[in-house]
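Standup notes
- DV: blocked on the single-chain target, sequence here:
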Amino acid sequence: MKDIPAWTGPFDPDALPGELLSADRPFVVRGGFAHWPVVQAARQSDVALAQYLMNLYNGVRVALFELAPEARGRVFYADETLSSFNFKRHAATLDQVLTGLIGVAQNPEPPALYVGSTTVEAVLPGFMEANLLGLGERDALVSLWLGNRTRIAAHYDLPDNFAIVAAGRRRFTVFPPEQIHNLYVGPLDPTPAGQPVSLVDFEQPDLQRFPRFSQAWEAGEQVVLEPGDALFIPSMWFHHVESLDAVNLLINAWWRQVPDYVDSPLSTLRLALMTLRDLPEKERRIWAHHFDHFIFGADTSTWAHLPESARGLLGPIDETLSRQARAHLLNQLKR
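- DV (later): unblocked, structure below
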C-alpha cells in the first residue's frame, strides 16, 4: 500500500486547475481549503461547526442512516444473503442530526449516524457562496456527507470526484479500476447506496474467502485527510472511505467529462450481461472484436468510408442522434 501522491502543480481554490480535474489518477491537495469558513468553524469545536451549519439551514429534512453499535460503523449488508442492509433510514432535520452526533460523541461504542450524498444547496442555501469551489464551467453536483465514525465499502462512481474534508479526519483507500477482479464486488442490485461495493471488510479482511484481495491491497494507495485537505478521484477508481472522528463533514463535487445526453455506460453493462455474457465462447470472441472495432479502438477511420448522411451512430454523436437512438432502444426493449 502506497501513499496517494500530492498535487504539485499550480493551485487556486477559486479556479481549480483543469490538469488536476481531468487527471487519470488520484491526487491529494493539502490545506487547499483551510481558509473555508466552515473549516474554520470546525477547527474551533463541534458545537461551532453545528452553529455555522444551522445559521444556513433551511429546514429541509435529510436522509439519516442509523447503524447499531455492533456494526462498528460499517454501512453494509445485513447478512450473507446480501438481500437487506444493516442500517435503518429515517427522515430527520439537520439540527436533530447534529444534536445526535454531539450527544454520542463521548460514547466509546455509539450507534453510527450517517447523512450521505445530500445536495448542499438544497439544505444549506448560501453555503457555496461562502465556501467557494472553483469548478469553472463544469456542471457539478455538490453534496455533503455528515456523520460520526463510519466505514463505506470500496466502490466506484461514474463521475469524476473532488472531495474536501471540512470537519474531522477521513481515510481514503483507492484502487485503480483494473483491480475490480481482486476486490470481490457484490451484486449490481441491491446495493447499500446505489453502486456495487466490495464485499471485503477492510478492517478484518478474510483472505481465505477473498484471497486475491492481497493483490488489490498491494496495488492500492491511501491517505488520511485533515480539515481543509482535498482529494481528486477520477471516474471509476475504487475508493473505501473511513470517517475517523466523532463529527465528520465532507463536501464533494461530481461531474462527468461528457455532455449530459451521453448515457451511463452502466446501462450498457447491464444490457451486455443480458445479451452477451452467456453466449457461446466463440460468439463472445466475435463480439469482443466488434466492440474493439466500433467502441474501444474507434477513430475517424472507423466511419470514413461511409457518406456522412449514412453514418448514424457509427459517426460522431450529437444530442439529437442520441435521443433518436435512445427511443429506438426503448422500443426494442419493449418486445
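- Follow-up: The mean pLDDT is 95.
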